[in-house]
Amino acid sequence: MTSTVPQGIEDLAAGVRAGDRRALSRALSWIEDETHQGRALLDRLYSPSPTAHRVGITGPPGSGKSTLTCELTRAIRSHEGTVGVLAVDPTSPFTGGAILGDRIRMQALAQDPGVFIRSMATRGSLGGLATTTYGASEAMEAAGCDWILIETVGVGQSEMDVVEAVDTTIVVLVPESGDSVQAMKAGLLEAGDLFVINKFDREGGDRIEKEILLMIELERDRRASKNEWQPRIFRTIATRGEGIEALRGGIEEHRAFLWRDPESWSARQDLRVAQRLRTLLRDRILHALWASGRWDPWIAECGRRVREGAASPYALVDDLVARLMAGKGTEG
Amino acid sequence: MTSTVPQGIEDLAAGVRAGDRRALSRALSWIEDETHQGRALLDRLYSPSPTAHRVGITGPPGSGKSTLTCELTRAIRSHEGTVGVLAVDPTSPFTGGAILGDRIRMQALAQDPGVFIRSMATRGSLGGLATTTYGASEAMEAAGCDWILIETVGVGQSEMDVVEAVDTTIVVLVPESGDSVQAMKAGLLEAGDLFVINKFDREGGDRIEKEILLMIELERDRRASKNEWQPRIFRTIATRGEGIEALRGGIEEHRAFLWRDPESWSARQDLRVAQRLRTLLRDRILHALWASGRWDPWIAECGRRVREGAASPYALVDDLVARLMAGKGTEG
User: ipTM above 0.90?
Assistant: First the structure.
């Protein structure tokens, strides 16, 4: 690949590594567009030893994730380290017309040279969201971000893939999130390292806190026997900045837990790399096989046969896949 | 394929077609498990001419989709036709521990022989949700359901795939759904045939209604020039059954619009079949290439090389995919 790479990629990679904001911005566009150049750039920027701590902030729309992300960024900045923010939530104020309070918060942050904010579009049906998001976080890491906060709505498989690729996962709920606790049972509970009950001044906070506590308790012995992290719960009112510093401390604690011994850290990195290879390979195979439009004639022909009642889509697809697996083409 | 099909499939298909509830229930389990038997069954049940009208009910967690679905089912039943309900929302009370009001509603419905309720687990990372859900709706259709209501949380690509496969899409919002309107801009607005502002007795209903109206207005001329449906807005308080009958009427209107002339109906069916073939093929290719664990040795070996700093995951995956596309194996 090296010989075919345009000169521009090396320059851009150097710019990103030097922490140049315009270079990073351009790099993120390449990555988001999933171009060959973007991949070549990521190849240049890749480091096998992560230097950034990735925090996933997930929860239903309306739970205040963006406000929380802003406040958390501010809290981290008042200690030490630079922060990259990736918003992959289509409902996030980072992505579109934020309400006034959030916009003011974000503008204040955007003026801080130690903060880089980027929203990622969710797009396509090829499941590449996790791949592009993680790639974007690698570019931010190469640019020197010590902390990378990834805000994503915690529903949907691609979004769960994003959550699985971070170091610390924060699940944000609100007192009226009765439904959301159901959602957690379907996967988010296992994923959550820290739970935040935001807008805690509203009615119902105690009730939902008890529900989450109960779910954590049910898993406590199993986790303890495996020497796993015990999830913690935080109460916040993000719009007033309340509870944010405690949450920041919780992230530090979780990070220290992950680093507690070199062996478990190393095992974790092995898993991370394997998962990264797996996701990349799956996405690339799908792209190679799918994005080319090579099946269009087959679909047109089979569509006609289905509409005539000659065969069901199931039989036609099974037949084609069997022939493909046997190494034959799409011709009868 | 015909020769290898166990006798049981023909019996089960006959049972489903006769409207036997136990047969349908078993069929749905096969389909949900994505077994070969399930696909063979769907092949038997497939009809190129749809008889059921599929309604997607989508919206953020907490918007009251389940209550609305229950009430809508009741409203349809008080007119004519049988109803199948598919809940593919992990946060749906259909799926897990419903709150009391919903549970009472659902139990009343479950006793109606003209109603069949099923919740689908969202699972796997192979994006098969839309495929299994649509397959389940085909089984319900074969069993004689005239209406199929599919409840799904409207975030995430697999969920959008589900929405794209229905006839009428209802987007449910609540007065406090400021964030959700952002979500709509990212895709749901185009998908929504009918918008429901549920819990309209809460503060803010008028404001969100105006926002949606404005978005509809922006598209009105374009839609009119293409002779497309103009989305409509409904106010409901589902817990009290208010506004439900009007919404049911809106669905009837949209259905009549889709059927307005044989030509556009036929064109729509062609598109539907092509999309179905496309989704099935993509899922089956992914399964065939992916679910087998055939890449595990490659991932182990490459993981080692990445951790040693010898190559980035990007270069390794690009290299493998290039060799696969050239028809070579995984060996150097």
Answer: no
